[in-house]
Specification:
This protein has 460 residues and is α/β, with parallel strands linked by helices. Helices cover 26% and strands 28% of the residues. It is built from eleven helices and 27 strands. The structure holds flavin-adenine dinucleotide (FAD). Flavin-adenine dinucleotide (FAD) is lined by residues 11-17, 36-39, 46-47, 49-50, 83-84, 115-117, 135-136, 164, 252, 255, 285-286, 302-305, 307. Keywords: FAD, Flavoprotein, Oxidoreductase, Redox-active center.
Length: 460
């Protein structure tokens, strides 16, 4: 008779994979858990890469929550440099390539967890050129760090004006690399409403940062020694010894294609607990969709918060425990130089796409009491249901301390509160940190007035 109550195979050893492993271990202590990781690194915090490259986080180990020795010591069968290359869902078997020995092995499972993450999309123009990198794995971060230290690039181009691209603008600027950001869409950070993308863009450009929107990379040229030399766009040519491509992600699910596992654009379709369309197969993190309770849809939201949550929920689900989980709501934050931005729930643009009856208010206040020195501007926008006043989402922008102000809106959206609830909500106050009327009190009042006025207009 088997020593183990259940035989579990996890593919991928970073955020979702390792969180799932420990969650299963906690809830099913007698299970056998094998973790397959095709790389050499596990359990690292990718979100810290920009600060690691900058040198603020000095040692790679600081980014690692659990190293391989600890994971093995904790009783997991961790197989590094082992790549899952095929799965037979009928026979419940995974074919694995041992990349060190260059040989295959077959593992059977009772439950399979797919936590393979995603890979950075790449442009075709840079193939084989030195000094061009994605930033997705710890290996990528180390390559970039080493290249900056050794080649000492003076000029860089970041391709893509999403979160990662904009964060890296700060990193490279602090490392004294003259950096251009090239974004082919009309604006940066396009998950935010236009006013918010524009607020940040204006501030960054005002400080002299070179961010080019509506500009598409069309080619590149290398030096005789194969090093990056120039990036060509549809508008101009930039000299650059360093290029970072940050143009989006492709879920690592190629090896699962055509096997009956339901996917959308390569991302695995799951329910709230990571269950896939195939029995005993779970998936979560950057390789899968996640349920967004605000849109009521499965959405691709590749974030560390979601990856960790899904790891834990998958573990609980495998153990037969399914806590109340409503789904996520797209909360995200950004910090670049002294600026901070955050969002939760639906933006105006997303509410419009979903065909919802929405309205919104935007409030500009200060982050300190009017009389207190050193205050700076703070912006908050609330998107709400124009009939019921239900808060659908919010966005904030300002300087230090601004992003964390989203958390009150996160809770409001999660709890299904209305703009009326915000009007007199009892926010804390001290002059160096806030005004006697919190900006959310003001936004709640403005939104309530807007609803009231439109009702009056309708009954006239
Ligand atoms: C620079 C950067 C900054 C970020 N900043 C933030 C942030 O501030 N906030 C936030 O919420 N999120 C942030 N994220 C996103 C967050 O880090 C990811 O969402 C999260 O790491 C995804 O975890 P995961 O476990 O799904 O995938 P991954 O971390 O990608 O892990 C998947 C693992 O699976 C392995 N694998 C893949 N295929 C196979 C296979 N066939 N066989 C074996 N192993 C395989 C891969 O080698 C990889 O190690 C950031 C990401 C980056 C890169």
């Amino acid at each position: 008779m088997s020593l183990y109550s259940m035989n579990i195979v996890i593919i991928g050893g970073v955020a979702t994979g390792l969180t799932a492993a420990y969650s299963i271990r906690k809830n099913l202590p007698s299970s056998k858990i094998t973790i397959l990781e095709r790389g050499e690194d596990i359990s690292y915090g990718a979100c810290g890469f920009p600060y690691y490259i900058e040198g603020l986080i000095e040692k790679e180990e600081k980014l690692i929550a659990k190293n391989a020795a600890e994971v093995l010591h904790d009783g997991f069968d961790l197989k590094l440099r082992h790549e899952a290359i095929d799965v037979d869902f009928e026979r419940k078997e995974v074919t694995v390539r041992n990349l060190s020995l260059q040989e295959n092995l077959t593992l059977s499972y009772d439950k399979l967890v797919i936590a393979t993450g995603a890979s950075a999309k790449r442009l075709p123009f840079f193939r084989g050129m030195k000094g061009v990198f994605p930033l997705n794995t710890l290996e990528d971060a180390n390559h970039i760090k080493k290249y900056i230290e050794e080649a000492k690039p003076e000029k860089a181009v970041i391709i893509g004006g999403g979160n990662k691209g904009i964060e890296l603008l700060e990193t490279l600027t602090l490392l004294a690399v003259d950096t251009q950001v090239v974004e082919f869409l009309p604006r940066i950070l396009n998950r935010y409403d236009e006013e918010f993308s524009d607020l940040l863009l204006k501030e960054l450009r005002g400080e002299g940062h070179k961010i080019h929107t509506r500009e598409e990379v069309t080619g590149a040229e290398a030096s005789e020694k194969g090093f990056m030399k120039t990036v060509v766009t549809d508008q101009r040519t930039y000299e650059a010894e360093l290029v970072i491509e940050s143009i989006g992600l492709t879920p690592n699910t190629d090896f699962l294609q055509g096997k009956g596992l339901q996917m959308e654009k390569g991302a695995i379709v799951t329910d709230r607990y990571g269950r896939t369309s195939i029995g005993d197969v779970y998936a979560g993190g950057d390789c899968a969709l996640i349920y967004d309770h605000m849109s009521g849809q499965n959405t691709y939201l590749p974030l560390g918060t979601n990856a960790n949550k899904m790891g834990r929920l998958i573990g609980l689900s495998i153990a037969g425990k399914e806590p109340d989980f409503k789904g996520v709501q797209g909360s995200a934050m950004l910090k670049v130089f002294e600026f901070e931005m955050a969002m939760t729930g639906l933006t105006d643009q997303r509410a419009a796409e979903l065909g919802l009856p929405f309205d919104s208010v935007m409030v500009r206040t200060r982050n300190k009491s009017g009389y207190y020195p050193g205050g700076t501007e703070f912006f908050v926008k609330i998107t709400f249901d124009r009939n019921t006043g239900k808060i659908l989402g919010g966005q904030v922008f300002g300087r230090e301390g601004s992003a964390l102000r989203i958390q009150a809106l996160v809770a409001s959206v999660y709890a299904g509160l209305t703009v009326h609830d915000l009007e007199y909500m009892d926010f804390g106050y001290i002059p160096p940190l806030n005004s006697v009327w919190d900006s959310l009190n003001i936004a709640g009042r403005k939104a309530s007035e807007k609803i009231e006025n439109s009702r009056r207009g309708a009954t006239r």
